[in-house]
Design a protein that fits this description.
Helices cover 40% and strands 22% of the residues. The chain is of the alpha+beta class. It has 2 domains: 25-118, no CATH class; 126-186, no CATH class. The strands form 2 sheets. The chain has a 5-stranded antiparallel β-sheet with strand order 2-6-5-4-3. A hairpin with a 6-residue loop joins strand 5 (97-103) and strand 6.
């Protein structure tokens, strides 16, 4: 198989993260029973887990979930008296973030925390070739970085020549996606766009 065909099948994900904004909640321990209740709640609401690289959805030990579409009251019903767990969900929803779940290897439960992954807009998955073209259209040197601040993205998108580059490469749909995420308001958060 040629390198080009292999690269065409590998996906690169563009996503928004925020590692700079301090969180008020602290990671909490959830028992296996809590985890079962959580998975039941997610399943009932059609929420699919986003497993870490190399893991599969139904057997993942480390994954993230977007619980922003589930009412906080539903969590309160499933986890009575677990104010610590509810504080994770509440902060994640307030910041439009994912919730991170890391199961313990010994089966004693899991750690839940607010992820740095912003869930306000879906990730953009593209082939490695398309990702390389997108990055070059933005005027970014690939080898130097795999992240860009939203302010840098906004400035790059202001130049007509950048749109022309996207149009020349038939990447207008990706330009529209980048314009949309650059135009959203993220409150006091300081997101960056990453790709890997």
């Amino acid at each position: 198989m040629s390198t080009t065909k292999r690269e065409d099948k590998m996906l690169v994900f563009f996503r928004l993260i925020d590692k700079a904004t301090p969180l008020s909640s602290k990671p909490v321990h959830a028992t296996m029973r809590d985890l079962g209740h959580l998975k039941g709640l997610l399943h009932a609401n059609g929420v699919i887990a986003d497993p870490d690289d190399g893991q599969h959805e139904h057997s993942a030990k480390s994954f993230e979930i977007n619980a922003n579409g589930i009412a906080l009251a539903a969590f309160d019903t499933r986890f009575p008296g677990r104010d610590d767990l509810l504080s994770i969900v509440e902060e994640a929803q307030f910041l439009a973030r994912m919730i991170r779940i890391d199961e313990a290897e010994d089966g004693s439960g899991a750690t839940l925390s607010v992820s740095d992954h912003i869930a306000m807009t879906p990730d953009m998955a593209v082939t490695e070739i398309a990702a390389s073209r997108i990055i070059r259209c933005l005027g970014i040197t690939e080898r130097r970085t795999q992240t860009i601040t939203l302010d840098q993205l906004r400035r790059a998108l202001e130049y007509p020549v950048v749109y022309d580059r996207f149009e020349t490469k038939n990447l207008e749909a990706y330009y529209a996606y980048l314009t949309r995420i650059a135009g959203l308001e993220y409150g006091d958060q300081t997101p960056t766009m990453t790709w890997s």
